[in-house]
Specification:
The structure is a single chain. The protein is built from 9 helices and 40 strands. It is mainly β and 679 residues long. Strand 7 and strand 8 form a beta hairpin. The radius of gyration is 28 Å and the shape is globular.
Length: 679
């Protein structure tokens, strides 16, 4: 990778006053902790000139490396003079004691140098130019001040990830920290080492796509290495991360990929990178998210002659996180502006790299999945049908069931200005089961690798099965009870062999361990109900708070050899820590002044079946060293509680999420957050 250029000392003659603080205020970049000359394209840069000094020439030079093919239109050096005040979209305007230099609203983002010659002397300074969502001419212009505060300026927030769409989405606190003193340096390093030409760095579409590849480690030796194996030796369990800052600073210090991440971590880091560059960005969670490896817009599930499942590459994750950016799509037909989906989690290759998007949400909803980028893959994530294939006696496979409602049950993001979820499913798909939704799916499939998929016959089950559980989730350590009701569809009577299998799965569908198998031989319609219990000792050793229990039921009719099945997924939960905030006066306030100190108290009660060892708390918050481990110093038996207190100083104004996590040798990353307001 190319090292970033060393910062140059500004050449000063006394003639020029760069007015850095004033420009940062006007360009809405004053929150960056590093005192750098940071501006946004499309807005004038106002520079002071000593009385009587006449400006003769202004030069701006792009310092970013160009790893792509250099196009003829890529202007990397621009000269402006009073006689020629406009060039390549740049403009020069003079007033008494002031010269205004305005970058075009489509210039490349990154490092530049600015030189002004006046009164016979030249002053030079480093300049960082960002995207400008406040500028109407910029492709990322967003005409909503509250959304700008949320999607560009907010440096803390939430990512959502409960393990079931049936529950209210559970927000996990996350520190984005895009204004941290070193984060922007790291982001510019990524920009300078991605495979983009100078001209392409003017496009939010191409920059954001390149950053999805740079945030994962697969192709470019990027920021974060993914790991879903359960073995996190040599790195950190992904559930322990709650801050992009820790990850980016570790990468910046070592220039080596950080170990390890999963989808919510990739999503949180990408929010930080894109907000730092000025692109409006949010994290999005899709519940029951399909991973279609064949690009046929379907999840194919195969069973052999005995009815046993054949493991394949397609899968359905209980939840998956990606991102959206707000931008125009000048590269596409009209009607595709607005929110675009993109994903830094390395799943499938696109154009030879592990990158995904940006894909217009409007194209996904309409079924026009031929449009770039990666609409087919993201469409399948939210709207693929699950197609069940069974092997017959001749070794051929036929469709026996199509589940049209399993995938994409709910898509959420953090609401603007609050910690509540905003439900955005309807931005991706029409109402489930509607004519529009079916038309969207049929149209999308025609652009896939198996366009005649729906010409196959679909079989109707002879038994209707209703699997019931009397709870929305399981607290790890409790028994699991279920009831199964069966009714014949067309046959007057039948003998059925029924198998109920319980398994613990990670949120991404990976099998972790078996909870048990129950078998029943029934005579219908007389024996139309069965029930069972899976005790905690059969599953709790495999479970954590991001896993779920899947109950799979399959019947086999003895006379006709007809087969059918159903499934139910039950999320598992673990008790989170409790975080309490109090002011120095102990008045219980939630509003603090910048610089004011407060006391934070953390508490965790062990409700697991086993003793917790090696336990410690961590705080993730702006301005607090989250590398600090607050160890409890003793084992925590079942039913016991532990507490820890720490002092925290309020930072920049705004709503701030303070994120507390607890980890032990047995369970990692149990998390809670609380929100304070800093004035």
């Amino acid at each position: 990778m190319v090292s970033p250029p060393a910062a140059k000392a500004a050449k000063k003659s006394g003639t020029i006053n760069w007015r850095i603080e004033e420009n940062r205020e006007k360009h809405r970049t004053k929150d960056f902790e590093d005192v750098l000359f940071i501006v946004r394209r499309g807005f004038p840069i106002r520079v002071g000139v000593s009385d009587g000094a006449a400006v003769s020439v202004v030069k701006v030079v792009s310092c970013g490396t160009d790893k792509g093919k250099k196009p003829k239109s890529a202007a990397k050096e621009v000269s402006l003079t009073p006689a020629k005040p406009a060039c390549a979209g740049w403009k020069l305007q003079e007033d008494v004691g002031i010269v205004a230099i305005t970058p075009p609203a489509n210039c490349g983002v990154g490092r530049w140098t600015l030189s002004v010659t006046a009164g016979g002397s030249t002053d030079t300074t480093d300049l960082i130019i960002l995207f400008n969502p406040w500028c109407k001419l910029d492709e990322v212009f967003l005409d909503d001040s509250r959304q700008l505060d949320e999607y560009v300026m907010a440096d803390t927030g939430l990512v959502f990830g409960t393990s079931s769409w049936r529950l209210d989405p559970e927000g996990w606190g996350w520190v984005f920290g895009q204004f941290d003193s070193k984060v922007l340096h790291c982001v510019l390093f990524l920009l300078e080492n991605c495979n983009l030409s100078a001209a392409s760095k003017s496009s939010a579409v191409f920059v954001s796509r390149a950053m999805t590849a740079m945030v994962n480690s697969q192709d470019e030796g990027g920021v974060l290495e993914g790991n879903w194996s359960g073995d996190y030796s040599g790195g950190k369990d992904p559930s322990e991360w709650a801050s992009s800052v820790d990850i980016l600073l570790q990468y910046w210090d070592r220039k080596k990929s950080v170990k390890y991440g999963q989808c919510w971590v990739f999503s949180g880091v990408l929010v930080t990178v894109l907000r730092a560059l000025g692109i409006p960005c949010r994290s999005v969670t899709n519940y029951r998210s399909a991973h279609d490896t064949e690009l046929n817009m379907a999840i194919d599930i195969y069973h052999d002659k005995r009815g046993e499942k054949i493991e394949g590459d397609d899968s359905v994750w209980n939840f998956h996180l990606w991102n959206e950016i707000w931008t125009r799509r000048d590269d596409l037909p009209s009607g595709n502006d607005g929110w675009q989906a993109l994903d830094a989690t390395p799943q499938e290759m696109s154009e030879g790299m592990f990158q995904a998007g940006p894909a217009p949400l409007k194209a996904i909803k309409s079924g026009n999945v031929y449009l770039p980028f990666d609409c087919r893959f993201i469409f399948a994530e939210v709207n693929a049908d699950r197609v069940y294939w069974f092997e017959d006696e001749d070794g051929n496979y036929e469709i026996k069931k199509i589940d049209k409602t399993h995938v994409g049950r709910m898509v959420v993001t953090k609401a603007v200005g609050s910690n509540q979820p905003e439900y955005i499913t309807q931005q991706y798909k029409h109402e489930e089961g509607s004519w529009e939704e079916r038309h969207q799916t049929r149209l999308a499939v025609t652009f896939g690798t198996e366009p005649d998929l729906y010409e196959y016959c679909e079989k109707t089950d002879e038994i209707d099965m209703q699997l019931k559980c009397d709870f929305d989730y399981i607290t790890i350590g409790e028994p699991v009870q279920y009831t199964l009701d069966l009714s014949l569809v067309s046959l007057p009577a039948a003998r059925a062999h029924v198998v109920v299998t319980g398994g613990i799965y990670n949120y991404n569908g990976k099998f972790l361990g078996r909870a048990g198998v129950h078998k029943f031989d029934l005579s219908l319609p007389e024996q139309d109900k069965v029930s069972g219990i899976f005790p905690p000792e059969q599953y709790s050793q495999h479970a954590d708070f991001r896993s779920f229990l899947r109950l799979s039921v399959m019947y086999d009719l003895r006379e006709t050899r007809d087969m059918g099945f159903c499934e139910e997924e039950i999320p598992l939960r673990a008790p989170p820590p409790v975080i309490d905030v109090s002011s120095s006066s102990g008045d219980g306030r939630r509003v603090f002044k910048s610089g004011e100190k407060m006391k934070l108290s953390f508490e965790l009660t062990n409700k697991f079946q086993t003793t917790l060892t090696g336990g410690f708390f961590k705080l993730n918050a702006p301005g607090f060293s989250s590398r600090r481990r607050m160890e409890i110093g003793r084992d925590l038996a079942r039913g016991e509680s532990c507490t820890y207190s720490v002092e925290y100083t309020a930072g920049r104004p705004g709503d701030v999420n303070l994120v507390c996590s607890f980890s032990s040798d047995q369970h990692r990353g149990l998390q809670a957050y609380t929100c304070i307001t800093v004035q």
